[in-house]
Amino acid sequence: MDIFNVFIVPTQTAPSSWSYLVSGLYILAFGLFIYGLMGLTGPKTAVRGNWIAAIGMIIAIIATMLNVPIRNGELGGPAGSDASTPTINWVLIAVGLIVGVALGIPPALKTKMTAMPQLVALFNGVGGGTVALIAWAEFIETDGFHHFRDTPAGPVVAGSLIAAIIGSVSFWGSLVAFAKLQELLNKNLEKSLVKAAKSFQLANIVLMVISLAIAIFLAVDAANGGGASVWWIVGLLIASGVMGLFVVFPIGGADMPVVISLLNALTGLSAAAAGIALNNTAMIVAGMIVGASGSILTNLMAKAMNRSIPAIVFGAFGGGDEGGAGAAGAAGGTVKATSAADAAIQMAYANQVIVVPGYGLAVAQAQHAVKEMASLLESKGVEVKYAIHPVAGRMPGHMNVLLAEADVPYDAMKEMDDINGEFNRTDVAIVIGANDVTNPAARNDPSSPIHGMPILNVDQARSVIVLKRGMSSGYAGIENPLFYLDQTSMLFGDAKKSVDAVIEELKAL
């Protein structure tokens, strides 16, 4: 069998030159998807990888448009279309493309790097919601799968039902993630949701049973001729959508990077399922690439926290916030405050300084100030490096993106495994808004909720300067003993203002 036959819609009896063109475009698009994804493995090639993948998606869209069946095999559709083929409304397709571009480009251009995690969550949710709507439309289009009574309907029915469930979970879960990241939820409400984790887990079990029961009913009904009421698919979408809300409601900020990655993987898998239902190769391949890469990233992020994915989804810890009120002193010891002048002197006379960025840096938009401070230190002969924890910030690679925006050299950004061995020979480690990823309790306290989570060995540096707005706990809701160590001093205030003050002192030295 000709390999290109796998890309041809089943209405065709033999491949045509038009079909070969469509198949060739699909293969080219898939190659660009994979090559672009390879570029995302490093910060130096990430931008190029994004552009390559985007070009691949444009080609896939063009191929899909060329493969749309049109009545009587008119130009624009594959050979073999006949009078029974439904007429395609190209005006609606054009309007949809224009609206999508109009809604997608402005936020992508205007959103600040500090809000990029929210944008990722929102865009991911839109993808899941689209897949859920496709499943709904397919159910209506086939009159409750009734049109397949005389033909094999397994792929269409299974793909539609899987897409409906996973797409709904991804859409509504991503909206909750967006609301949490954008801090739209009241802090007390968010903490209450985290504390009610067990109640949400029980509700999710019930909702999962309901969703599966409806899906099984619709599958059995399709096998017997179909024609079920549209309210069944609506009920399936509602049940799975509420499940998506309840899954993410109790998950705290400490786990949000992993949740974003997991929801991204779910959206990819739902798109692949929808592709099976629509017999669209582009959706199948692109969805599987997104699903596979998202699953791998989710697993890597979970390992970086030394927690299993089920423990993250069902454990639900982490309802605090860097700016919220927290009890100080629970770890014992005395907190030593410092000034910008003292911090500048310590760093100016150091041989090596390691900057440890966290979400506090993103909130204060201090990345450009940090780059200027590092440049001043380097002009004085100080070596400056940046220690990046895999789950620092609110999405994978958040700190890398922020620092790259400020033109921090890629070679200066060191991953946790590469930098941890250098802290014990580092003169000054300056922690900017990072909390849980520097907490030595993860290493030393078996009773700590984050015990076993790999951390940056900041406590091994000769001197530690911590920039914080106050003595609040981090996302995990626990205090950091690092703040009370003898070699640690606290520079309180907004991160950007504090760094700006240090810069002025460095200039005066």
Blueprint of the fold:
Elements: H1 17-39, H2 43-66, H3 90-110, H4 116-141, H5 154-181, H6 187-195, H7 197-223, H8 230-248, H9 256-278, H10 281-304, H11 309-315, H12 340-348, E1 352-357, H13 359-364, H14 367-379, E2 383-388, H15 398-405, E3 413-415, H16 416-419, E4 428-432, H17 441-444, E5 463-468, E6 488-492, H18 495-508
Parallel strand pairs: 1-2, 1-4, 2-3, 4-5, 5-6
Summarize the structure.
This protein has 18 helices and six strands. With about 500 residues, the protein is an alpha/beta fold.
How would you describe this protein?
The chain folds into three domains: 1-110; 114-319, no CATH class; 340-508, TPP-binding domain (Rossmann fold). The chain has helices at residues 17-39, 43-66, 90-110, 116-141, 154-181, 187-195, 197-223, 230-248, 256-278, 281-304, 309-315, 340-348, 359-364, 367-379, 398-405, 416-419, 441-444, 495-508; strands at residues 352-357, 383-388, 413-415, 428-432, 463-468, 488-492. α17 (441-444) links the parallel β4 and β5. The chain is built from 18 helices and six strands. It is α/β, with parallel strands linked by helices and 509 residues long. It has a six-stranded parallel β-sheet with strand order 3-2-1-4-5-6. α4 packs parallel to α9 (256-278), α5 packs antiparallel against α9 and α14 (367-379) packs parallel to α18 (495-508). The longest helix is centred in the first third of the chain and has 28 residues, at 154-181. Residues 25-504 form the NADP transhydrogenase beta-like domain. This is NAD(P) transhydrogenase subunit beta. It is found in: Cell inner membrane. InterPro entries: DHS-like_NAD/FAD-binding_dom, NADH_DH_b, PNTB-like. Its EC number is 7.1.1.1.
